[in-house]
Structures
1.
Amino acid sequence: MVDGLEVNKIYENDFFDVVRDWPDNSIDHCMVDPPYNMSKENGLGWAFSSHVTMSEDWDTFERKDYLDFSKAWIREVARVVKTNGNIFIFGTYHNIYDIGHILAEMDFRIINSIVWFKPNAQPNITCRLLTESTEDIIWACNNTEEKATKWTFNYEIAKALNNGKQMRNMWRIPYAPKREKKFGKHPAQKPVSIMTRMIMIASKPNDIILDNFSGSGTTGVVAKQLNRKWVMVENKHQYTEIARKRLQATVELPEKIKEVFEKEDEILSK
Ligand SMILES: C[S@@+](CC[C@H](N)C(=O)[O-])C[C@H]1O[C@@H](n2cnc3c(N)ncnc32)[C@H](O)[C@@H]1O
């Protein structure tokens, strides 16, 4: 417990209702997968791609409302995350340019943009456009372009995860497999593999990681397994239920992560 903030807890609330009680500078990093505003009324998301056919109330905004919503949560995240903490934000072309613009307007230091390539993306059934097979992740430092310094990047861990070579910003990772959905499905569930990689390269053991739109809880599930503290916020009971069940079970870490995680202290102390 740090003042009004409880760690290793899922807040089943609206983010804006809980964050106001949290102290400034109390969380090490934020890794978040917000609504992308890509849902369509009939669920025909990506131009009939069948890839993702989202029709979710939590993912449907008028454009101006989406911009206001995004600015408001980013401002709150920046307040509660420590200066120079890492902020990772997922998106696709539906929202990522808006998110990038907001971050630039707020003068955040962008560290990297990461492309998540999904080799098992489903074909586009219209044959009128390229098959969407990527998502984007913006990695920002919680400070201004000019002042940002000493953000966490576990360079040697990243190298170890990539067979001794420098890690690039293109990550080839399939969708969350069936075994990760055995406690229920979330339409935007992120794979354990992507969150393990992010957490291993961009946080230290015992750091507190926030996911303020946590869905089925992938961030917290992985953080717990990797000996990090976590805070998740999700306002839909059906999703917090999945997250709670996942947190009680043991996550199967990808082989490479397991191997590097076992040597984490040794690598970090070099
Ligand atoms: C893209 S999904 C996150 C999926 C998650 N990464 C996973 O692996 O399951 C975004 C989530 O944010 C939740 N959400 C949207 N607006 C919210 C708000 N204002 N407060 C709390 N949760 C919210 C939605 O219910 C949805 O489950």
2.
Amino acid sequence: MAAWPTADRVVDATGCYVLPGFIDFHTHVGDRIGDFDLADDYESGTRIGIMNGITTLCTFVTQGSLGSKETLRDAVRRAQARAAGRCHSDVAWHITPTTFEPEDWQDLERLIGAGFRTLKFYTTYRKAGLFTDQARLEELFRRLGPTGARFLVHCEDDELMASVDTSALDLSKASSHARLRPEAAEIRTVDALIRLAAECKVPLHVVHVSTISAAEQIKEAHNHQDLTSETCPQYLWLDETWLDRDDGHRWICSPPLRGDRPHFRQLARAGVFDLIATDHCAFCCTDKDTWDGRDIRTVANGLAGLGGLAHLAWRLWEDDPDRAAQELALRLALNPATRLGMSHRKGALSPGLDADVVILDPNGPEQPIRSSLADTHETYPGFTSTLAFKHVFLRGECVVQDGQLTQADRPLGIALQGSA
Ligand SMILES: [Zn+2]
């Protein structure tokens, strides 16, 4: 029998799974969205994340989200300054340019060179200045494809949504939000974008897939092009009936919650989605509840989710814990690391990579899911989990022990990309 290598410290992982640190590929923290500040900043977002095994948080930098004439590089600097010294996990940013003057293209290429390889675009949100039309997307694909950039797209057809007849809708009802953003809007855009990405031969990542038809389109195209997708726990475990509650406005998010979730879960369980990410976009309780009561479109748009990611992903395969552990290692670690362009550092337990390690006890005490530590409505009331995070290591340092932060006042997280 080979001798144990000498070690400074031995951690007892009896009965636990030892997995690579998780990556939440899609979160919104430390920013303002529409009329509201997000409830989570970098500190509180990475705190609930690391306590639940997320060692890398991916979030967004949007050019001009202050409504100013900000350049993309200034926007990146702004985000980096907000995050510096405050993160309990490592952080990476996806970037969203909103203006396209010659100097903007230069900025973009420089940032891609500095490691910001994932660009995010929206086919909706015209009023917020985020809408990107098909022609612009094609230009972006053709010009930036050769740089190694990867394209993340929020797929909802703006025109189709604008054409929904609102005269027959009671806009004070949360369920009307789902009528205003119909399934067809997602399906049409996913179809168009898959074709465009194939034509331009660029890697496409479809964020927050919510419909069965879009999932099936992706599954089919997946075989012959560089196409990945994610879904989120809210599209797995919550359905449209949550919008019928008296407080249904608290579940307003885009795309909206949908019907027939057992079928959708079957697709997820079979591996249609390369990754599972939260689209965490939490607003404080007062902001979520303060709306005019007449038009559901005035509700702050987004849900908390970060703290629930591992628990709600695990649930898909919970009847087979060994498989659940493998699926999490793939869909919450390896696949997001690869898509982020960080597989040389993150995503696996392998010599030479960062020692981000999660020691997970599947049989811990049953506890309620907690999506955020900020003052937000819980997205998953009544949902519980027995997953316990015994230890979480960030680049070799034990940052969580028995579910508690070991050094709450000394956040060790770093920015993974270069300076802007
Ligand atoms: Zn999002």
